[in-house]
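>> received
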Amino acid sequence: MPATPTSVSNAPTVSATPATPATPAQPATTASTTISDTTPPVISNIQATSITETSATITWATDESASTEVKYSLTSPASATTTTTGTDSVTSHSMNLTGLSSASTYYYVVISKDSNNNTATSNEQTFTTLTPPPPPAPSNEINLSSLLPLRPWDVIMSGSDYIVTMGDDASHTGRLIRVTTGGSISTIASFNKRVFGVTLSGSDFIVSDDVTNILRVSNDGTVSTIASGVTVNNFASDIALSGSDYIVTDYSNGRLLRVTPSGVTSVIASGLRNISSIIVDGTDFVVTANATTPTGTGHATLYRVTQGGSVSVITEFSSYSSLLGITKMGSYYYINDSSNLVRVATDGTKSIPTYISGGGQIISITNNGSDIIAVNFSNSRILKITPVLTQSQANNLAAISQMINSLDEILKQLSQLLK
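>> returned
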């Protein structure tokens, strides 16, 4: 018989243990990397501005904040000499150089360093300082009048007589007077205001006052108003005759105005800030302007203005901040500040100035065909001024002065080379 299976009892029971879940894989760790800045600033728009006889301002821009440094000298390369350094980290850079030699060419480089010490150095640049004016020539001066009754403002010729406007700041009164060549003084008209500019129109005098009016004054002293509200209160305005019209300087508003005999006012030109005096030159007008001018140089300026209002610069005066009077004698303009008289050719060439001694302030000038006639505001007198030197002598003195300046610069450069 087949064998019968045998049942096995009490056999141990085996239980399966669940597997432990696998630990998720961790992302790989990336090492941190610092990118270093090795790019120097980019320098652009290098300029030398506000150049005078002894100073200049160097400006430039960088594309990131950086330091400000200028190296400069009278010889090349500039990088081996004087250094001027700023303290701020900026993108618009400016450095003033002072104590420079006049009429000299300077070589310079600009340097900017960013916060990571990346340094940029520009190519070498140059600028030339201005030439100082020659020393004033002496002059013959004659007092043509005794003490005037009020402080004078303007003077013109009427025949052989001098016509003078005057004003008193304290009382705000004024006079129009006649002074003969013999020094006799008579009053043409009195005003309850100051009067400034004056011009001759036929037998009448046209004057501007300090309350914006243009007035007509007859020889017998009759006063009538041509126009009101023309300029600005308390600002002196000069006046000249062009045909039958009156050309007026509007000092505060920087305008040159035309006033007709019927009182109609129109603007010839604007933007001529601080224009102080005017003459008619052919069909054009020549005006002086004080140091705040549209050119941005800060120099007193001589302008030519056409009838149509076109404005051009005849010349600038780097050594003078104000030009107070102008007249034309022969083919030359004569212009004064408070104590110097300068002759200027129509092309802008300036001759040696004449020093006006005696103290005070020369505020206006005219001429009698051979001499300059001036009014001294501070000393209340009329002067006749004749330069002692001939123009040839003056030119020779100017040439000698320039040679001395050049020799001085040569000696300075030799001193630099020997260091």
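>> The helical segments are 391-418.
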